[in-house]
Amino acid sequence: MKNKNGLGVVFRKTVRQNSGMTLLTGILIAACVAAALFPPLVLEQMVNRLTGRQAVSLVLPLGYFGLLALSDLLESGQSVMITVFGQKMTHSLRSELCAKLKRLPAAYFTQHAPAKITSRFVNDVDVVDSLFTNGIIGMVADAFKVLSILMVIFYKSTGLGILMLLVTPALFAMTRLFQKRMLKAQLANRVAVSKVNNHVPETIHNIRTIHTLFRQKYMEEKYDSYIEESYRALDKSNLYDSIYSPIVIFVSSCVIAVMMVFAALGGGMQQFFGITVGTAVAIIAYVGKVFEPLESIGMEIQNIQSAVAGVKRINEFLSERERTVPEGTSNRAFSDANGESAISFDNVEFGYDDKTVVLQDMSFSVQQGEAVTFIGRTGAGKSTLFKLILGLYAPQKGQVLINGIDAAQISDKQKRKLFGYVEQTFHSVAGTVAEQISLFDDSIGQKQIEEAAKLVGLHENIMELDQRYNTPVEKLTFSQGQFQLLSIARAVASQPKILLLDEITANLDSETELRVLQGLERACKGRTVLSISHRLNESTHSSRLIQIGE
Whole-structure pTM over 0.70, yes or no? Predict the structure, then answer.
Protein backbone atom coordinates (compact mmCIF):
# COMPACT_ATOMS: atom_id res chain seq x y z
CA MET A 1 0.00 0.00 0.00
CA LYS A 2 1.02 3.57 -0.58
CA ASN A 3 2.42 5.25 2.51
CA LYS A 4 0.42 8.09 3.95
CA ASN A 5 1.93 11.14 5.53
CA GLY A 6 0.31 12.66 8.59
CA LEU A 7 1.09 16.21 7.51
CA GLY A 8 -0.39 15.46 4.09
CA VAL A 9 -3.63 14.43 5.78
CA VAL A 10 -3.63 17.70 7.74
CA PHE A 11 -3.04 19.76 4.59
CA ARG A 12 -5.67 17.94 2.57
CA LYS A 13 -8.44 17.80 5.17
CA THR A 14 -7.79 21.01 7.07
CA VAL A 15 -6.20 23.57 4.77
CA ARG A 16 -8.08 22.70 1.58
CA GLN A 17 -11.43 22.09 3.21
CA ASN A 18 -11.13 25.30 5.28
CA SER A 19 -9.57 27.63 2.73
CA GLY A 20 -11.49 30.65 4.05
CA MET A 21 -10.25 30.09 7.59
CA THR A 22 -6.70 29.57 6.28
CA LEU A 23 -6.84 32.85 4.32
CA LEU A 24 -8.20 34.74 7.34
CA THR A 25 -5.42 33.32 9.53
CA GLY A 26 -2.82 34.48 7.00
CA ILE A 27 -4.36 37.98 6.87
CA LEU A 28 -4.35 38.24 10.67
CA ILE A 29 -0.68 37.18 10.82
CA ALA A 30 0.25 39.83 8.23
CA ALA A 31 -1.81 42.45 10.08
CA CYS A 32 -0.11 41.55 13.38
CA VAL A 33 3.33 41.95 11.80
CA ALA A 34 2.40 45.35 10.36
CA ALA A 35 0.72 46.57 13.55
CA ALA A 36 3.86 45.77 15.58
CA LEU A 37 5.93 48.22 13.47
CA PHE A 38 3.91 51.42 14.02
CA PRO A 39 3.88 52.08 17.82
CA PRO A 40 7.69 52.68 18.06
CA LEU A 41 7.50 55.10 15.09
CA VAL A 42 4.79 57.14 16.84
CA LEU A 43 6.85 57.01 20.06
CA GLU A 44 9.85 58.34 18.12
CA GLN A 45 7.85 61.34 16.93
CA MET A 46 6.65 62.17 20.44
CA VAL A 47 10.14 61.98 21.99
CA ASN A 48 11.72 64.07 19.20
CA ARG A 49 9.05 66.75 19.67
CA LEU A 50 9.57 66.78 23.43
CA THR A 51 13.37 67.01 23.15
CA GLY A 52 12.97 69.72 20.50
CA ARG A 53 10.68 71.66 22.86
CA GLN A 54 7.78 71.35 20.42
CA ALA A 55 4.14 70.89 21.32
CA VAL A 56 2.91 67.31 21.26
CA SER A 57 -0.54 66.93 19.76
CA LEU A 58 -3.04 64.78 21.65
CA VAL A 59 -3.43 62.77 18.49
CA LEU A 60 0.05 61.22 18.90
CA PRO A 61 -0.39 59.67 22.37
CA LEU A 62 -3.93 58.59 21.50
CA GLY A 63 -2.64 57.09 18.27
CA TYR A 64 0.21 55.36 20.13
CA PHE A 65 -2.09 53.70 22.66
CA GLY A 66 -4.66 52.99 19.96
CA LEU A 67 -2.03 51.18 17.87
CA LEU A 68 -0.91 49.19 20.92
CA ALA A 69 -4.53 48.18 21.56
CA LEU A 70 -5.01 47.26 17.89
CA SER A 71 -1.81 45.21 17.93
CA ASP A 72 -2.96 43.30 21.03
CA LEU A 73 -6.42 42.78 19.50
CA LEU A 74 -4.92 41.38 16.31
CA GLU A 75 -2.63 39.13 18.37
CA SER A 76 -5.69 37.77 20.19
CA GLY A 77 -7.51 37.20 16.91
CA GLN A 78 -4.45 35.43 15.52
CA SER A 79 -4.28 33.17 18.59
CA VAL A 80 -7.97 32.29 18.29
CA MET A 81 -7.68 31.41 14.60
CA ILE A 82 -4.55 29.34 15.18
CA THR A 83 -6.33 27.45 18.00
CA VAL A 84 -9.37 26.76 15.80
CA PHE A 85 -7.07 25.64 13.00
CA GLY A 86 -5.31 23.27 15.41
CA GLN A 87 -8.64 21.80 16.59
CA LYS A 88 -9.77 21.11 13.04
CA MET A 89 -6.39 19.59 12.28
CA THR A 90 -6.51 17.21 15.26
CA HIS A 91 -10.08 16.21 14.36
CA SER A 92 -9.00 15.36 10.80
CA LEU A 93 -5.96 13.47 12.01
CA ARG A 94 -7.85 11.41 14.60
CA SER A 95 -10.54 10.60 12.01
CA GLU A 96 -7.86 9.32 9.65
CA LEU A 97 -6.27 7.24 12.43
CA CYS A 98 -9.65 5.70 13.36
CA ALA A 99 -10.33 4.82 9.73
CA LYS A 100 -6.87 3.26 9.53
CA LEU A 101 -7.47 1.27 12.73
CA LYS A 102 -10.49 -0.45 11.16
CA ARG A 103 -8.39 -1.57 8.18
CA LEU A 104 -5.54 -3.14 10.17
CA PRO A 105 -5.13 -6.92 10.42
CA ALA A 106 -5.48 -8.70 13.75
CA ALA A 107 -1.74 -9.38 13.78
CA TYR A 108 -1.10 -5.68 14.42
CA PHE A 109 -3.04 -5.80 17.71
CA THR A 110 -1.17 -8.85 18.97
CA GLN A 111 2.21 -7.30 18.15
CA HIS A 112 1.45 -3.87 19.69
CA ALA A 113 0.28 -3.29 23.25
CA PRO A 114 -3.07 -1.45 23.69
CA ALA A 115 -1.40 1.40 25.62
CA LYS A 116 1.01 2.05 22.75
CA ILE A 117 -1.83 2.13 20.22
CA THR A 118 -3.80 4.51 22.46
CA SER A 119 -0.79 6.82 22.75
CA ARG A 120 -0.93 7.35 18.96
CA PHE A 121 -4.45 8.75 19.26
CA VAL A 122 -3.92 10.79 22.44
CA ASN A 123 -0.33 11.82 23.11
CA ASP A 124 0.97 11.89 19.54
CA VAL A 125 -2.02 13.72 18.05
CA ASP A 126 -2.04 16.27 20.89
CA VAL A 127 1.63 16.97 20.41
CA VAL A 128 1.13 17.33 16.64
CA ASP A 129 -1.48 19.97 17.47
CA SER A 130 1.29 21.96 19.12
CA LEU A 131 3.27 21.68 15.88
CA PHE A 132 0.78 24.10 14.36
CA THR A 133 -0.72 26.06 17.24
CA ASN A 134 2.52 26.69 19.14
CA GLY A 135 5.05 25.70 16.50
CA ILE A 136 5.16 26.24 12.75
CA ILE A 137 2.49 28.94 12.43
CA GLY A 138 3.83 30.87 15.41
CA MET A 139 7.37 30.52 14.11
CA VAL A 140 6.38 31.81 10.65
CA ALA A 141 4.68 34.81 12.23
CA ASP A 142 7.68 35.51 14.46
CA ALA A 143 10.08 35.14 11.52
CA PHE A 144 8.14 37.76 9.55
CA LYS A 145 8.21 40.05 12.57
CA VAL A 146 11.98 39.70 12.83
CA LEU A 147 12.54 40.42 9.14
CA SER A 148 10.24 43.44 9.05
CA ILE A 149 11.76 44.94 12.20
CA LEU A 150 15.30 44.38 10.88
CA MET A 151 14.33 46.29 7.73
CA VAL A 152 13.07 49.23 9.79
CA ILE A 153 16.18 49.18 12.02
CA PHE A 154 18.46 49.16 8.96
CA TYR A 155 16.53 52.12 7.53
CA LYS A 156 16.79 54.08 10.78
CA SER A 157 20.43 53.23 11.57
CA THR A 158 22.79 51.62 9.08
CA GLY A 159 25.32 50.74 11.76
CA LEU A 160 22.80 49.11 14.03
CA GLY A 161 21.27 47.31 11.06
CA ILE A 162 24.66 45.82 10.18
CA LEU A 163 25.21 44.89 13.83
CA MET A 164 21.84 43.14 13.94
CA LEU A 165 22.57 41.33 10.67
CA LEU A 166 25.75 39.98 12.26
CA VAL A 167 24.09 38.92 15.50
CA THR A 168 20.89 37.36 14.11
CA PRO A 169 22.54 34.56 12.03
CA ALA A 170 24.63 33.59 15.06
CA LEU A 171 21.45 33.27 17.10
CA PHE A 172 19.84 31.16 14.38
CA ALA A 173 22.92 28.91 14.28
CA MET A 174 22.63 28.45 18.04
CA THR A 175 18.92 27.75 17.62
CA ARG A 176 19.68 25.06 15.05
CA LEU A 177 22.15 23.40 17.43
CA PHE A 178 19.58 23.39 20.21
CA GLN A 179 17.02 22.02 17.75
CA LYS A 180 19.06 18.90 17.01
CA ARG A 181 19.83 18.23 20.68
CA MET A 182 16.24 18.74 21.76
CA LEU A 183 14.88 16.49 19.01
CA LYS A 184 17.05 13.63 20.24
CA ALA A 185 15.92 14.20 23.82
CA GLN A 186 12.24 14.41 22.83
CA LEU A 187 12.40 11.15 20.89
CA ALA A 188 14.00 9.41 23.87
CA ASN A 189 11.31 10.83 26.17
CA ARG A 190 8.44 9.64 23.96
CA VAL A 191 9.87 6.11 23.84
CA ALA A 192 10.18 6.09 27.64
CA VAL A 193 6.63 7.43 28.13
CA SER A 194 5.31 4.70 25.84
CA LYS A 195 7.06 2.08 28.00
CA VAL A 196 5.53 3.57 31.16
CA ASN A 197 2.02 3.62 29.63
CA ASN A 198 2.33 -0.02 28.63
CA HIS A 199 3.88 -1.19 31.93
CA VAL A 200 0.96 -0.15 34.18
CA PRO A 201 -1.89 -2.06 32.42
CA GLU A 202 0.43 -5.02 31.88
CA THR A 203 1.17 -5.12 35.62
CA ILE A 204 -2.53 -4.90 36.54
CA HIS A 205 -3.46 -7.58 34.02
CA ASN A 206 -0.87 -10.01 35.42
CA ILE A 207 -1.13 -8.97 39.08
CA ARG A 208 -1.99 -12.48 40.34
CA THR A 209 0.93 -14.06 38.52
CA ILE A 210 3.26 -11.35 39.83
CA HIS A 211 2.16 -12.00 43.44
CA THR A 212 2.35 -15.77 43.00
CA LEU A 213 5.93 -15.60 41.69
CA PHE A 214 6.96 -12.84 44.14
CA ARG A 215 7.98 -10.53 41.28
CA GLN A 216 6.63 -7.32 42.83
CA LYS A 217 10.10 -5.89 43.39
CA TYR A 218 11.13 -6.67 39.83
CA MET A 219 8.07 -4.90 38.38
CA GLU A 220 8.67 -1.90 40.66
CA GLU A 221 12.29 -1.63 39.56
CA LYS A 222 11.25 -1.96 35.92
CA TYR A 223 8.72 0.83 36.33
CA ASP A 224 11.27 3.02 38.11
CA SER A 225 13.78 2.49 35.31
CA TYR A 226 11.24 3.63 32.70
CA ILE A 227 10.34 6.71 34.77
CA GLU A 228 14.03 7.52 35.27
CA GLU A 229 14.65 7.14 31.53
CA SER A 230 11.83 9.59 30.82
CA TYR A 231 13.08 12.07 33.43
CA ARG A 232 16.62 12.04 32.05
CA ALA A 233 15.43 12.75 28.52
CA LEU A 234 13.02 15.45 29.71
CA ASP A 235 15.66 17.10 31.90
CA LYS A 236 18.03 17.27 28.94
CA SER A 237 15.35 18.95 26.83
CA ASN A 238 14.51 21.40 29.63
CA LEU A 239 18.20 22.21 30.07
CA TYR A 240 18.53 23.40 26.48
CA ASP A 241 15.32 25.41 26.78
CA SER A 242 16.43 27.07 30.03
CA ILE A 243 19.81 28.04 28.57
CA TYR A 244 18.37 29.50 25.37
CA SER A 245 16.28 32.31 26.89
CA PRO A 246 19.02 33.86 29.08
CA ILE A 247 21.41 33.88 26.10
CA VAL A 248 18.86 35.78 23.99
CA ILE A 249 18.24 38.33 26.75
CA PHE A 250 21.98 38.83 27.30
CA VAL A 251 22.66 39.39 23.59
CA SER A 252 19.76 41.86 23.41
CA SER A 253 21.24 43.91 26.24
CA CYS A 254 24.69 43.83 24.64
CA VAL A 255 23.40 45.09 21.28
CA ILE A 256 21.64 48.03 22.91
CA ALA A 257 24.75 48.84 24.98
CA VAL A 258 27.04 48.75 21.90
CA MET A 259 24.63 51.00 20.00
CA MET A 260 24.61 53.56 22.81
CA VAL A 261 28.39 53.51 23.23
CA PHE A 262 29.09 54.04 19.53
CA ALA A 263 26.43 56.75 19.23
CA ALA A 264 28.04 58.60 22.16
CA LEU A 265 31.52 58.59 20.59
CA GLY A 266 30.60 61.38 18.19
CA GLY A 267 32.20 62.05 14.81
CA GLY A 268 31.95 59.38 12.14
CA MET A 269 30.57 56.76 14.53
CA GLN A 270 27.68 58.99 15.51
CA GLN A 271 26.95 59.70 11.86
CA PHE A 272 27.22 55.99 10.99
CA PHE A 273 24.77 55.03 13.71
CA GLY A 274 22.81 58.24 12.94
CA ILE A 275 20.17 58.40 15.66
CA THR A 276 18.31 61.13 17.48
CA VAL A 277 16.99 60.70 21.00
CA GLY A 278 13.58 59.74 19.65
CA THR A 279 15.14 57.33 17.17
CA ALA A 280 17.20 55.79 19.98
CA VAL A 281 14.02 55.20 22.01
CA ALA A 282 12.29 53.69 18.98
CA ILE A 283 15.27 51.48 18.15
CA ILE A 284 15.51 50.21 21.72
CA ALA A 285 11.84 49.24 21.39
CA TYR A 286 12.55 47.60 18.03
CA VAL A 287 15.57 45.69 19.35
CA GLY A 288 13.40 44.35 22.15
CA LYS A 289 10.79 43.39 19.55
CA VAL A 290 13.44 41.55 17.51
CA PHE A 291 14.69 39.42 20.38
CA GLU A 292 11.23 38.82 21.80
CA PRO A 293 10.10 36.73 18.78
CA LEU A 294 13.54 35.10 18.63
CA GLU A 295 13.07 34.06 22.23
CA SER A 296 9.61 32.76 21.34
CA ILE A 297 11.14 30.80 18.48
CA GLY A 298 13.33 29.08 21.05
CA MET A 299 10.23 27.89 22.91
CA GLU A 300 8.47 27.02 19.67
CA ILE A 301 11.40 24.84 18.69
CA GLN A 302 10.74 22.62 21.68
CA ASN A 303 7.10 22.21 20.63
CA ILE A 304 8.15 21.44 17.07
CA GLN A 305 10.63 18.79 18.22
CA SER A 306 7.94 17.04 20.25
CA ALA A 307 5.60 17.26 17.29
CA VAL A 308 8.19 15.90 14.86
CA ALA A 309 8.55 12.83 17.08
CA GLY A 310 4.75 12.47 17.11
CA VAL A 311 4.51 12.93 13.34
CA LYS A 312 7.07 10.18 12.78
CA ARG A 313 5.09 7.77 14.97
CA ILE A 314 1.81 8.71 13.26
CA ASN A 315 3.35 8.24 9.82
CA GLU A 316 4.60 4.81 10.90
CA PHE A 317 1.05 3.94 11.99
CA LEU A 318 -0.52 5.18 8.74
CA SER A 319 2.04 3.17 6.77
CA GLU A 320 1.15 -0.14 8.43
CA ARG A 321 0.06 -2.91 6.06
CA GLU A 322 -3.72 -3.18 5.82
CA ARG A 323 -6.03 -6.11 5.38
CA THR A 324 -6.77 -6.91 1.76
CA VAL A 325 -10.51 -7.58 1.63
CA PRO A 326 -11.87 -6.84 -1.86
CA GLU A 327 -15.08 -4.87 -2.22
CA GLY A 328 -18.20 -6.80 -3.04
CA THR A 329 -17.10 -10.17 -1.66
CA SER A 330 -19.36 -12.90 -2.96
CA ASN A 331 -22.54 -13.52 -0.99
CA ARG A 332 -22.02 -17.21 -1.53
CA ALA A 333 -20.74 -17.50 2.04
CA PHE A 334 -24.32 -16.93 3.23
CA SER A 335 -25.94 -19.49 1.03
CA ASP A 336 -26.00 -23.22 1.53
CA ALA A 337 -22.78 -25.03 0.88
CA ASN A 338 -24.28 -26.88 -2.13
CA GLY A 339 -22.50 -30.07 -1.19
CA GLU A 340 -19.33 -28.36 0.01
CA SER A 341 -18.13 -28.42 3.61
CA ALA A 342 -19.19 -25.44 5.73
CA ILE A 343 -15.63 -25.16 7.06
CA SER A 344 -12.55 -26.74 5.54
CA PHE A 345 -8.88 -26.72 6.57
CA ASP A 346 -6.59 -27.97 3.81
CA ASN A 347 -2.98 -28.68 4.93
CA VAL A 348 -2.90 -25.48 6.98
CA GLU A 349 0.35 -24.30 8.53
CA PHE A 350 0.40 -21.21 10.76
CA GLY A 351 2.69 -19.46 13.22
CA TYR A 352 2.58 -16.01 14.81
CA ASP A 353 6.25 -15.56 13.94
CA ASP A 354 8.90 -17.25 11.82
CA LYS A 355 10.34 -19.19 14.77
CA THR A 356 7.26 -20.90 16.20
CA VAL A 357 4.76 -23.03 14.26
CA VAL A 358 1.42 -23.32 16.09
CA LEU A 359 -0.44 -25.46 13.53
CA GLN A 360 1.17 -27.78 11.01
CA ASP A 361 -0.47 -29.83 8.22
CA MET A 362 -3.88 -29.27 9.77
CA SER A 363 -6.68 -30.74 7.65
CA PHE A 364 -10.34 -31.37 8.54
CA SER A 365 -13.84 -30.55 7.32
CA VAL A 366 -17.01 -29.55 9.15
CA GLN A 367 -20.33 -30.14 7.39
CA GLN A 368 -23.35 -27.85 7.45
CA GLY A 369 -25.28 -28.22 10.75
CA GLU A 370 -22.57 -30.37 12.35
CA ALA A 371 -21.37 -29.86 15.93
CA VAL A 372 -17.63 -30.28 16.56
CA THR A 373 -15.50 -29.82 19.66
CA PHE A 374 -11.75 -29.18 19.51
CA ILE A 375 -9.91 -30.59 22.52
CA GLY A 376 -6.28 -30.41 23.49
CA ARG A 377 -3.75 -28.99 25.91
CA THR A 378 -3.21 -25.28 26.51
CA GLY A 379 -1.16 -23.75 23.72
CA ALA A 380 -1.99 -26.47 21.21
CA GLY A 381 -3.60 -23.93 18.85
CA LYS A 382 -7.33 -24.28 19.55
CA SER A 383 -7.98 -20.52 19.80
CA THR A 384 -5.73 -20.01 16.77
CA LEU A 385 -8.15 -22.19 14.78
CA PHE A 386 -10.96 -19.77 15.56
CA LYS A 387 -8.85 -16.79 14.52
CA LEU A 388 -8.14 -18.46 11.19
CA ILE A 389 -11.82 -19.33 10.70
CA LEU A 390 -12.79 -15.71 11.45
CA GLY A 391 -10.23 -14.51 8.91
CA LEU A 392 -8.29 -12.52 11.49
CA TYR A 393 -5.13 -14.25 10.29
CA ALA A 394 -4.17 -15.93 7.03
CA PRO A 395 -2.22 -19.22 7.08
CA GLN A 396 1.35 -19.31 5.82
CA LYS A 397 0.49 -22.49 3.91
CA GLY A 398 -2.73 -24.21 2.91
CA GLN A 399 -6.28 -22.86 2.83
CA VAL A 400 -9.08 -22.07 5.29
CA LEU A 401 -12.39 -22.10 3.41
CA ILE A 402 -15.87 -21.08 4.55
CA ASN A 403 -18.45 -22.51 2.15
CA GLY A 404 -15.67 -22.70 -0.41
CA ILE A 405 -14.53 -19.07 0.10
CA ASP A 406 -11.18 -18.01 1.57
CA ALA A 407 -11.94 -16.94 5.17
CA ALA A 408 -9.65 -13.90 4.93
CA GLN A 409 -11.63 -12.60 1.92
CA ILE A 410 -14.97 -12.33 3.74
CA SER A 411 -15.83 -8.74 4.67
CA ASP A 412 -16.49 -7.66 8.27
CA LYS A 413 -20.13 -6.89 7.46
CA GLN A 414 -20.64 -10.41 6.13
CA LYS A 415 -18.82 -11.97 9.08
CA ARG A 416 -21.31 -10.39 11.51
CA LYS A 417 -24.13 -12.33 9.80
CA LEU A 418 -22.12 -15.48 9.22
CA PHE A 419 -20.42 -16.00 12.62
CA GLY A 420 -21.53 -15.84 16.23
CA TYR A 421 -18.62 -15.89 18.70
CA VAL A 422 -18.91 -16.56 22.45
CA GLU A 423 -15.82 -16.12 24.63
CA GLN A 424 -15.02 -17.37 28.13
CA THR A 425 -16.03 -14.07 29.73
CA PHE A 426 -18.50 -11.39 28.70
CA HIS A 427 -16.96 -8.13 27.42
CA SER A 428 -19.38 -5.24 27.81
CA VAL A 429 -19.59 -2.10 25.68
CA ALA A 430 -20.78 1.31 26.83
CA GLY A 431 -24.56 1.32 26.38
CA THR A 432 -27.80 -0.38 27.33
CA VAL A 433 -28.68 -4.05 27.68
CA ALA A 434 -30.18 -3.97 24.18
CA GLU A 435 -26.97 -2.52 22.80
CA GLN A 436 -24.95 -5.27 24.48
CA ILE A 437 -26.87 -7.69 22.29
CA SER A 438 -27.07 -5.70 19.05
CA LEU A 439 -23.58 -4.15 19.28
CA PHE A 440 -25.08 -1.02 17.70
CA ASP A 441 -25.94 -2.91 14.51
CA ASP A 442 -28.87 -1.01 12.94
CA SER A 443 -29.96 -4.12 11.04
CA ILE A 444 -30.81 -5.84 14.35
CA GLY A 445 -34.17 -4.53 15.57
CA GLN A 446 -35.78 -4.68 19.00
CA LYS A 447 -37.74 -7.80 18.03
CA GLN A 448 -34.55 -9.68 17.13
CA ILE A 449 -32.91 -8.52 20.37
CA GLU A 450 -35.80 -9.85 22.47
CA GLU A 451 -35.95 -13.09 20.50
CA ALA A 452 -32.25 -13.67 21.15
CA ALA A 453 -32.75 -13.03 24.88
CA LYS A 454 -35.75 -15.40 24.97
CA LEU A 455 -33.80 -18.06 23.12
CA VAL A 456 -31.11 -18.22 25.82
CA GLY A 457 -33.61 -17.83 28.69
CA LEU A 458 -32.64 -14.30 29.76
CA HIS A 459 -35.73 -12.32 28.71
CA GLU A 460 -37.51 -12.65 32.07
CA ASN A 461 -34.44 -11.44 33.98
CA ILE A 462 -34.14 -8.39 31.74
CA MET A 463 -37.86 -7.54 32.12
CA GLU A 464 -37.36 -7.42 35.91
CA LEU A 465 -34.87 -4.56 35.54
CA ASP A 466 -36.07 -1.00 36.20
CA GLN A 467 -35.48 0.12 32.62
CA ARG A 468 -35.69 -3.34 31.09
CA TYR A 469 -33.78 -3.45 27.80
CA ASN A 470 -32.85 0.23 28.20
CA THR A 471 -30.97 -0.41 31.46
CA PRO A 472 -27.37 0.88 31.25
CA VAL A 473 -24.84 -1.94 31.46
CA GLU A 474 -23.06 -0.35 34.43
CA LYS A 475 -26.27 -0.74 36.48
CA LEU A 476 -26.60 -4.46 35.80
CA THR A 477 -26.34 -6.81 38.77
CA PHE A 478 -26.25 -9.98 36.70
CA SER A 479 -24.45 -13.08 37.89
CA GLN A 480 -21.55 -14.51 35.91
CA GLY A 481 -23.86 -17.07 34.36
CA GLN A 482 -26.37 -14.39 33.29
CA PHE A 483 -23.61 -12.37 31.68
CA GLN A 484 -22.55 -15.50 29.80
CA LEU A 485 -26.14 -15.94 28.60
CA LEU A 486 -26.07 -12.31 27.49
CA SER A 487 -22.91 -13.12 25.53
CA ILE A 488 -24.70 -16.01 23.81
CA ALA A 489 -27.67 -13.76 23.00
CA ARG A 490 -25.24 -11.29 21.43
CA ALA A 491 -23.77 -14.08 19.31
CA VAL A 492 -27.13 -15.32 17.95
CA ALA A 493 -28.86 -11.93 17.54
CA SER A 494 -27.73 -11.59 13.92
CA GLN A 495 -28.95 -15.15 13.25
CA PRO A 496 -25.52 -16.48 12.20
CA LYS A 497 -25.07 -19.81 10.45
CA ILE A 498 -21.93 -20.71 12.43
CA LEU A 499 -21.41 -20.53 16.22
CA LEU A 500 -17.90 -20.45 17.71
CA LEU A 501 -17.74 -21.26 21.43
CA ASP A 502 -14.49 -20.70 23.31
CA GLU A 503 -14.67 -22.63 26.63
CA ILE A 504 -17.75 -20.70 27.67
CA THR A 505 -18.38 -22.79 30.82
CA ALA A 506 -14.77 -22.92 32.03
CA ASN A 507 -15.30 -20.37 34.83
CA LEU A 508 -18.80 -21.39 35.95
CA ASP A 509 -20.01 -23.55 38.85
CA SER A 510 -21.98 -26.69 38.08
CA GLU A 511 -25.45 -25.18 38.66
CA THR A 512 -24.74 -22.09 36.58
CA GLU A 513 -23.06 -24.24 33.92
CA LEU A 514 -26.23 -26.29 33.56
CA ARG A 515 -28.35 -23.21 32.90
CA VAL A 516 -25.86 -21.87 30.38
CA LEU A 517 -25.71 -25.24 28.60
CA GLN A 518 -29.51 -25.32 28.39
CA GLY A 519 -29.56 -21.87 26.81
CA LEU A 520 -26.72 -22.88 24.55
CA GLU A 521 -28.55 -26.01 23.40
CA ARG A 522 -31.48 -23.87 22.20
CA ALA A 523 -29.12 -21.41 20.50
CA CYS A 524 -27.25 -24.16 18.63
CA LYS A 525 -30.27 -25.68 16.87
CA GLY A 526 -30.00 -25.45 13.11
CA ARG A 527 -26.47 -24.08 13.18
CA THR A 528 -22.96 -25.32 12.57
CA VAL A 529 -21.31 -25.30 16.02
CA LEU A 530 -17.58 -25.33 16.78
CA SER A 531 -16.45 -25.49 20.42
CA ILE A 532 -13.12 -25.31 22.24
CA SER A 533 -12.63 -27.37 25.38
CA HIS A 534 -9.88 -28.58 27.68
CA ARG A 535 -12.12 -31.15 29.25
CA LEU A 536 -13.98 -33.92 27.51
CA ASN A 537 -17.10 -33.52 29.65
CA GLU A 538 -17.58 -29.95 28.38
CA SER A 539 -18.40 -31.25 24.91
CA THR A 540 -21.89 -32.55 25.82
CA HIS A 541 -23.54 -30.69 22.94
CA SER A 542 -21.05 -32.00 20.37
CA SER A 543 -21.34 -34.99 18.10
CA ARG A 544 -17.70 -35.16 17.00
CA LEU A 545 -14.34 -34.50 18.68
CA ILE A 546 -11.17 -33.31 16.97
CA GLN A 547 -7.90 -33.59 18.89
CA ILE A 548 -5.49 -30.64 18.47
CA GLY A 549 -1.79 -30.96 19.23
CA GLU A 550 -1.55 -34.71 19.49
Answer: no
